[in-house]
Design a protein that fits this description.
With about 210 residues, this protein is an all-alpha fold. It has two domains: about 100 residues; about 90 residues, no CATH class. It has seven helices and no strands. α1 runs antiparallel to α2 and α2 packs across α6. The longest helix is centred in the middle third of the chain and has 45 residues. The chain is elongated. The N and C termini lie far apart (about 60 Å).
Length: about 210
């Protein structure tokens, strides 16, 4: 049994370092973009007074500028993921120390008529649901609820779940990143039903091949 407090402390220290590095990269790229932008503006002014080589320089500078913009976008996205992962680990550490306000408690009404949900504190403050629900989407949350209120009875399905849990238990960084990316999608409860309704409609482009 490993020390989870020490584990989260180490994760937090590592993620803080990663976030600091990414922030410095963002600042560096921003400075490069500014310099390139100023050079492009200057070269455009000189183009009206000079030869073709200034035009070529302008095109080269523009290409480099676009590259830096795309690079900044990638680094900014990674920095956002790391920042959210860092906050997740801080929340996990605080949760372990007794702060039960950081993660969803689940809908206690779901347990009202259930045979064991209330007795076993499946939902509510400090509940099993609050301890294990680290899903990032509404669909994922629904699967957790279904698994808690109606666990499988088939032995082969239970074994498959045990195997999956055993495999993923060691992939903490992957699981946290998966959770964070899902959370950042900011899915609403109506998104998936709307998508299913759209997908169940007749082919919109049927008879409209000329549109494509």
């Amino acid at each position: 049994m490993y020390d989870r407090t020490a584990f989260y402390g180490q994760r937090i220290a590592k993620l803080e370092e990663e976030h600091s590095t990414l922030s410095k990269q963002q600042q560096e790229i921003s400075r490069i973009r500014l310099i390139l932008f100023l050079l492009i503006v200057g070269s455009i002014v000189w183009t009206t007074q000079s030869g073709a080589w200034i035009l070529l320089a302008t095109l080269v500078l523009t290409i480099f500028f676009i590259i830096q913009v795309r690079r900044h976008t990638r680094v900014a996205l990674e920095a956002s993921i790391v920042a959210n992962t860092l906050q997740l680990n801080r929340d996990e550490l605080a949760f372990m120390k007794g702060d039960k306000s950081l993660f969803p408690q689940g809908d206690i009404q779901l347990a009202a008529d259930h045979i064991y949900a209330i007795d076993l504190d499946i939902f509510g403050k400090g509940s099993l649901f609050q301890s294990i629900d680290r899903t990032g989407t509404w669909e994922g949350k629904g699967l957790i609820i279904d698994a808690l209120l109606g666990p499988p009875k088939d032995i082969s399905e239970i074994q498959l779940r045990k195997d999956a849990i055993t495999e993923l238990a060691k992939e903490v960084e992957w699981r946290q990143r998966f959770h964070v990316v899902g959370k950042m999608a900011d899915e609403s409860a109506a998104d998936m039903p709307s998508l299913r309704q759209w997908a169940s409609q007749p082919d919109f482009f049927a008879g409209r091949a000329s549109w494509i």
